[in-house]
Amino acid sequence: MATAIALDALDLAALLCSRVCHDLISPTGAIVNGLEVLEEKETDAETKTFALDLIKKSARTASARLEFCRLAFGAAGSAAAQIDVGDAEKMARAFIEDDKTKLAWNLPRTLLPKNRVKLLLNMVLIASQTIPRGGTITVLPVGEGESMGFRLVALGPNARIPQAVPPLLEGASESGAVDAHAIQPFYAGLLARACGVRIELKADGEAVVVATA
Fold first, then answer.
1. CA 57, CA 42: separation in Å to the nearest integer?
2. What is the b/e burial string over 145-166, where b = at least 16 CB atoms within 10 angstroms of the residue's CB?
3. Which runs of consecutive H residues, i.e. helices, occur in the chain?
4. Position 2 confidence tier, pLDDT thresholds 50, 70, 90
5. What are the pLDDT digits (tens) for 147-181?
6. What is the structure's pLDDT at 191?
7. Contact present, 139 and 105 (Cβ < 8 Å)
8. 8 A C-beta contact, residue 117 and residue 85
9. Which residues are CB-neighbours of 185 under 8 A, at least 6 positions away?
């Protein structure tokens, strides 16, 4: 049986920082490795070209992840700020899309309250966790205006609902604790409640639906 998680502001901030660092450590490490290769005197031209390509690709990845995390987890303006959904789409595509995973974005370009856009990006992250082998995430609006909700349909091989995520969205876990790996769905639940909604996950045939309710 799940137990409510008691987490103070300092621990929440520390765990979110750990989550961001986890997202950035791989591309920044690759940049360092590429630079070390370039510094080697005996490196041939082909290897140098490979190292430069690695550095460029990793720098783009690190930049995309920073932009996404800045909006999904960060302050992103004043408490009353509104954010362009089109900007959120660009960040989500840069962060999520690769050779295996694609986004089908069907939201109108409009301004929404900051927390609602942060909620949307966190729902995209959750949807990506339901298709570990890749697939397509279709993003759809529910309603309109500033109270717009979202329905994300994740379709891919072996799509599944991670067992720990639903209770985390409700602010609970089996142990009553949360670590850096699990902080994102817990934070998404906090955002949802701040927006006056809940996030529900359900299986729909071969897809998983992540939606506000």
1. 23
2. eeebbbbbbbbbeebebeebbb
3. 9-39, 45-72, 85-96, 114-129, 165-169, 183-194
4. confident
5. 999 999 999 999 999 999 999 999 999 888 999 98
6. 96
7. yes
8. yes
9. 122, 126, 164, 165, 168, 169
User: Which two structure tokens, joined as six digits, stand for 122?
Assistant: 């966190």
pTM: 0.92
Question: And the tokens for 70?
Answer: 């800045």
pLDDT at position 166, please? 96
pLDDT per residue over 94-114, tens digit each? Answer: 999 999 999 999 999 999 999
User: Which fold would CATH assign to domain 3-212?
Assistant: Heat Shock Protein 90 (3.30.565)
Which residue's entry shows tokens 């995390």? 69
- The span from the CA of 80 to the CA of 102, in Å, is 31
135: helix, strand or coil? strand
Every domain of the chain and the residues it spans: 3-212
* H or E element, residue 4: strand 3-4
Pair 114, 81: CB distance under 8 Å: yes
Say which residues have a Cβ less than 8 Å from residue 26's Cβ, sequence separation at least 6.
61
Rg (CA), the chain: 19
Binning pLDDT at 50, 70 and 90, where does residue 80 land? low
Q: Is 209 helix (H, G, I), strand (E, B) or coil?
A: strand
